[in-house]
Amino acid sequence: MDRRKTYVFRPRSNTKFQYCANRTADWAWRYPDENCVTSKSEAEDAIYDDLREETDFLHANLVQKAIKRATDDIGNCIDQLADGENTSKPHYDTFSIVYDKRAATYYRDKVSLATVHGRVECEYDLPDNPDGTPHGEYLLNDDYSFSTSTVHYDSEADEFYLHAAMERELDVARPGKAEHSNVLGVDCNVDDHIAVTSTGTFVGNANYLNHQRREFEKRRASLQQMGTRSAHLTFHSIGDRFGRWGSRYFVSRHHERLRLPYDPEALGLFRL
Predict the structure, then answer these.
(1) Judging by beta carbons within 10 Å of its beta carbon (0-12, 13-18, 19+), is residue 26 exposed, middle or buried?
(2) What pTM did the predictor assign?
(3) Can you say how many angstroms the Cα of residue 194 is from the centroid of all Cα atoms in its chain?
(4) Residues of 65-79 as b/e, b for ≥16 C-beta within 10 angstroms?
(5) Structural domains of the chain, count
(6) Which residues have CB under 8 Å from 33's CB, separation 6+?
(7) Which of 236, 244, 227, 239 is CA-nearest to residue 34?
(8) 271 exposed, middle or buried (CB, 10 Å; 0-12, 13-18, 19+)?
(9) Distance of CA 23 to CAs 12, 75, 117, 235, Å?
(10) CA separation for the pair 201, 194 (Å, rounded)
C-alpha cells in the first residue's frame, strides 16, 4: 500500500472507528450499578446519530460495525461475569476495522475500502503460484464470495492485512450437489440425542445439553443466594444466557450435520 493510502488509513479511519467502539462501550457498560446494554439496535437508537456527527460523518456502515463490535464484546463480558470470572469494560486501541459489502467492494485481485477521505483501492499481494494456498482455494475460486472482512495493521512489518470470511452457495435443490441433500425429515426428543434425521443420522448430545442447562441454573441460584447488589445486577444482566447458548448450539449442530446452503467456514488472510 502506498504512503498516501497508509496516511488515510493510519491513523484517521482507524482512530474514528475505534472512537465509535470505545464511545459505545462507555455508554453500554454499566456494571455494577445497572444492567449493561448488549443490544446493537438499542445502542444504535441511542448514540448512532451522535457518533456520525462526532466523527465528521464516518461511513454509516463503519459506525454500525463499531457499535456491533462493542455490544458483542460486552455480551461476552457479561457471560464471563456469570461464570464468576473477572472482566472489565472493553477498550479498543489497536488497528482493526470491520468491513462488509456495504463499505467495501471486493474483487479477486484488489479491494475498494471506504475511508474518511473516500474510497481507497488496495491490491492483494498474491503468490506467483496460488495453487494449494488459501488464495487459490478461496480468493481466486469463483465458487466463493466475500462475506465480511477486517483490516489489520502490522506495525513491525508496516503492512496491512485483510482477514476475510468467504462463503459459497450450495444448490440443495439438486441431489448430489450438497452433502445430506436427501434428508427428508427430522424427529426431535430422541433418547440421548437432540434429533435424528430420516437418513439415520443422530444429531447433538442431549446429555451434554441438559448438563449445560443444570450448570446454568446452579449459577443463577448461586447469584440469587448471594443477596448482594452486584450479584443481583449480574443475575439480571445474564438474562436468558442458556437460551442464547442453546440457540448457538442448535445452529452449530445444524451446520455440522445438515449442511446449510451457505458455507461460512472459509477464512483467508490476504496481505494488501
Answers:
(1) middle
(2) 0.66
(3) 26
(4) bbbbbbbebbbebbb
(5) 1
(6) 233
(7) 236
(8) middle
(9) 16, 16, 22, 25
(10) 11
Structural domain includes residue 266: no
List the pLDDT tens digit at each of the 272 positions of the chain.
444 455 445 568 999 999 999 999 999 999 888 889 999 999 999 999 999 999 999 999 999 999 999 999 998 888 888 778 888 999 999 999 999 999 999 999 999 999 988 899 999 998 899 998 888 988 999 999 998 899 988 888 888 888 888 888 766 555 444 454 444 444 454 455 556 555 555 556 666 666 666 676 666 666 666 666 666 666 666 555 656 666 666 655 554 444 433 344 455 566 66
Give the closest residue to 270 by CA, choosing from 126, 133, 131: 126
With contact defined as beta carbons under 8 Å apart, do 139 and 125 qualify? no
Residue 111 belongs to some domain of the structure: no
Grid coordinates in use for 24? Answer: 459505545
DSSP secondary structure of the chain: --HHHHHIIIIIIHHHHHHHHHHHHHHH--TTTSPPP--HHHHHHHHHHHHHHHTTS--HHHHHHHHHHHHHHHHHHHHHHHTT---------S-EEEEETTTEEE-SSEEEEEETTEEEEEE----S--TTSHIIIIIT-TTEEEEEEEEEEETTTTEEEEEEEEEEB--TTSTTSSTTTT---EEES-TTSSEEETTS-EES-HHHHHHHHHHHHHHHHHHHHH--HHHHHHHHHH-SHHHHHHHHHHHHHHHHHH--SB-TTEEEEEE-
Residue 18 lies in a domain: no
In a domain, 53, yes or no: no
Range of the domain at 230: 186-258
